[in-house]
Amino acid sequence: MADGSGEPVLVSLTAPARRSLVEGLVRATGSGNRDSAARTVDVDVSDAEIADFLAEVAHADTGFIARTAHGDRALAIIAATVAALCGEDIRAALATPNIAFLTTLKPPAIEAVRTVLLAIETETPDAVTHSLAPLAVADSPR
């Protein structure tokens, strides 16, 4: 690349920051950090209701905020969101989250998930965050 003087211009190329699958995802209910366009859904309802919701929201213009008190349900909603985006069986992902698969998601897939699943709100943020620890492996440098 030249700057008009015929001399090369050095350009610093850096890799874009990698977004995490779980870092910053969990927050306390009522923390005030809200996306006004995002829908909030209680994910402690039946799997059938969540599957129907995810099939719709995966193709919507806005993301959603999941609300749960249970770490296992938070893990399930992440897996089900991935399944919805991939066209896989959402109910199966809710019932049995595939941790091994989730930890191998590439940055573009993680970005897609975080664009749809904006946050998980809970009254127990420490416990829910602890339940998502197996997914933090995906956030470690490889």
Strand order of the largest sheet: 1-4-3-2
Cα radius of gyration in angstroms: 18 Å
Order of helices and strands: EEHEHHHHEH
Spans with pLDDT under 50 lasting ≥5 residues? Answer: none
Distance between the termini: 32 Å
Task: Assess the beta-strand content as a share of residues.
Answer: 5-15%
The tally of helices reads 6
How does the major sheet shape up?
Answer: 4 strands, parallel
Which term fits the overall shape?
A: elongated
- In terms of quaternary structure, what is this? single chain
Residues in helices, as a percent range: 25-40%
What structural class do you assign from the helix and strand content?
A: alpha/beta
Report the count of strand segments.
4
Overall average pLDDT: 86
Describe, in plain words, how this protein is organized in 3D.
The protein has helices at residues 47-57, 71-86, 90-95, 99-102, 107-116, 125-131, and strands spanning 26-28, 39-42, 64-67, 117-122. It has 142 residues and is α/β, with parallel strands linked by helices. It has a four-stranded parallel beta sheet with strand order 1-4-3-2. Helix 1 links the parallel strand 2 and strand 3.
